[in-house]
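Interim report, section 4.2 (structural modelling).
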Amino acid sequence: MSTASEGGLAGLDRLLRNTFEWYTVSKKEFKDAIRSKGLWLLGLIFTTAFIAPVALALYFDIGVSQQGQGLGMQLLLSQVYLNMVTLLLPIVAIFLGFAAISKERTSGSLKLLLSLPHSRKDVIIGKVLGRCAVLGVPLVASLAITAVFLTASRLTFKPELFGLFSFFTVVFALVFVAIVVSISGAFEKSLWSGAANFIVYFYFTFLWNAGANGVGNILSNELGVTGAIRWHVVLLLKLVNPNQAYKTLVNSMLGSGEAPALSARYGMFSQGQEASRTICADVLNGAPQAQEGVFGTIVTCAPGSGSLPFYYSDPAVVVFMLTWIGIAASISYYTFNLADL
Amino acid sequence: MTAIELDGVRKEFGDVVALNGVDLTVEEGEVFGFLGPNGAGKSTTINILLDFVRPTAGSATVLGHDVNEESKAIRERIGVLPEGYDVYERLTGREHVEFVVESKDADDDPMELLERVGVADAADRRAGGYSKGMKQRLVLAMALVDEPDLLILDEPTTGLDPNGARKMRDLVREESERGATVFFSSHILGQVEAVCDTVGILQDGELVAKDSVEGLRAAAQGDMKLVVTVGDTDGLDAAIEDVRALPEVSSVRADTDRVTVNCDGDAKMTVLNTFEESGVAVEDFETQEASLEDLFSAYTEQQEVEV
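Predicted structure of the assembly:
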């Protein structure tokens, strides 16, 4: 029985090796990195961070009222996990990948790797995919453990919701690993790679939105590009940030209205009345509605006659995120390929 | 077919010229010793063959393939022991060799290769814990995977004890008998002399000599080593300058009152007379036939003086 399955595995191994030129590198990469103790420590921290809120709710009854039980899952995801993932996961990705290529370059193991019949392209792709697996495996494991805890807690467990959340989270993690490993390929020293990675992380996490809005202001004030075009540009810029893309995807998934994706995209803006109407009607094909609130008029966005443009839909946002893997790897390949080792 | 061909290869790093127009041909089946002091450009040459660095000018082929454009095809057929490498700390010795076997789509038995180089006992230990010599043997085992047509060994005896170095030479002979071409770089002549058919000497980025070991030895045999012991070291420096200026003399080295002169075989009296004429009394002298070692030292004298 076991020999048969081993034969199957060996066959699969050979098939993958013959099909994908990067496979051998990524397999070595996975074997090597998965044995790092630091990595397992990070995995443990991550699992603890995921489980802690659930465990608190489970054992101490904190924040779970009678009616809260039904909504609890959504609250947990949107209030706790969403921020935790966007802040913490990229840092884990950086720790895991910032030296992936630069360390091999400094130590000289890259010379062993490249004296074998691997092209520099295979090395970049193999490294990116290998490290993706290294983060992906513990992440999926910790999500699974969390799911078990959730089922045991008083919160109503919604498998579809959690499944989708896990999927987006894994995609987000992979995108970050790809970016991190690619940056590593562009630098000669791990220190520089680490610094560049933290700048990129900081920029994506804290500064990108301001930058996107800034571009919008320049378009309107300096170049006279106003109205819908301005907001199209701003929204696209916001969506190419994997961090924002991930947040809006999760918000869309959690939304309860009849057009959750529309609300989620609309929720990426906080503009004045006039701009909000333009964004809702002309950019997102929705129907703006004014509501009188305590703090003045608030414009909300209801589904309009047309549907949300396909390039702002949830699947499109997932594609945006995945494109990053390709962009990062190509830039990295370009710089790495030119370098003298 | 030629195994390696360099054609006017020049490499600059910033404003440092590492290689200054090197032309070199290594025939298939040859064991080629690539000699030169540290910093002469041996590793840069090898790095160009492996496409780790790209030449500033000139071109190179390995086994008939262009080193840059068809690098992968080259690396399918060669085995390399690079200089300044490191192993993967967390992978075992066996996993290292398995990785190469899979990379080359070969069917070698990793254990067999590890036995050949003498690290089979440590096959299942992580390579991070290996000694320098064990790592060197491991990487050699990796280079031997899939019976490569060409072995490129960059300073392969570094980190090996005399026994290990002898084993390395035996392996080179075995591989050569199998039909492989071996390109073997070293800064120690003794390592090369014992196994190589042809020797090239690189100095300051230029190939200063290339001949068969016999050819070089014959050239060396025309030479003589004259060791002169002087009675008084006063005025010795001036005398040495005079001797060095003689056309028959290739090099002079002084060690307090003993002066070693490499010169043409029939120049003994001229040298001794020059010492006397310069006012330095010769107390004793002996002659030896120059060895290849002396020839190598003569070529790379600057380096030897520093050492």
